[in-house]
Predict the structure.
Amino acid sequence: MDLRPTKRRGQNFLVDPNTVRRLVRLAAIGPDDVALEVGPGLGSLTLGLVAEAAAVVAVEVDPPLAAALPLTAADRLPAAVARRLHVVEADGLRVGPADLPAEVAAPTVLAANLPYNVAVPLLLGLLERFPTVRRGLVMVQAEVADRLTSPPGGRIYGVPSVKLAWYAHARPAGAVPRPVFWPQPNVDSGLVAFERRAAPPGEPDLRADVFAAVDAAFAQRRKTLRTALASWAGSAAAAERLARAAGIDPGARGETLDVDAFTRLARQARLAGQGPVAGQDS
C-alpha cells in the first residue's frame, strides 16, 4: 500500500491478533450488535468485529485505507462474513447517522482504537450524535483513559471525566502494551469500557449549559468555584449565589463536583436567566 503512518492522523495501527481477540471479547460483541468502529486503519480489529457482529460500520478518513479495507475483509474472511462490513469514508469528528448506509441498522456498540490526538472530542461527539450506541470499548492514550474514568476529587479528574459521565458510566478495562502497534507509539495505551446512562443527569437541552460550567470550573482548577465561575456566571457574587442555590459550597473547587452537581449548577443558571458562554460547548 506504500503506507506511511502520520502523527497528524494519530496513525498507530493495531497489528497483534491476540490483542484483537482480547478487545472483541471485552467489547462483548454479539450476533445482534451493529458495531461502529472509527479509525479502523489496516483492519485488524475490524476483522475481529466482523466475525462476531451482525454488521460493522467502519469510518475511515484516509482514502487509501478506506479503499483497502473491503479488499482486506474479502481476502481474509468467508464471503458471507465479509459482507457484514460497511466502510464509510468520512471524518469521525463529523460523521453522523445520515452518513451511514441506509441498509444497516443503527449502531449499538462502539469499538475502536481511537486516534489518540483527537480521542476525547471523537468519543464525546460520537456519543452525542449516535444515541443508539448503548455501550462500548475504546483504546486511547493511557493518561486519557485515566482522566476519562477518574472519579471526583482526584488530581486527574477534569473536563473529560465530567463530560463522559454526562453520557455514560465508564471504567478502566486494562492496559495495552506498545509492541502490539505498528509503528510503536511513544506513549502507553489503555482501554475504557462504558455503558450509556439510562438517561442523562439533566434535560437533554441542558447539556450545553452543563458543559460550559464544567469548562469554566476547570479553566482555573485551583480556584474556588466562587472565582472560577465568575466569568461564566457574570460575577463572583453571582457564582456564589448560583452555587448556594444548587446546594454546592462556593468555596469548593470544581474537581470535587460530580456531573450531577454541575447539572444542578447549570439548572440554577438557567432559572436565573443565564446560559452557556459562547464557544464553550464541546
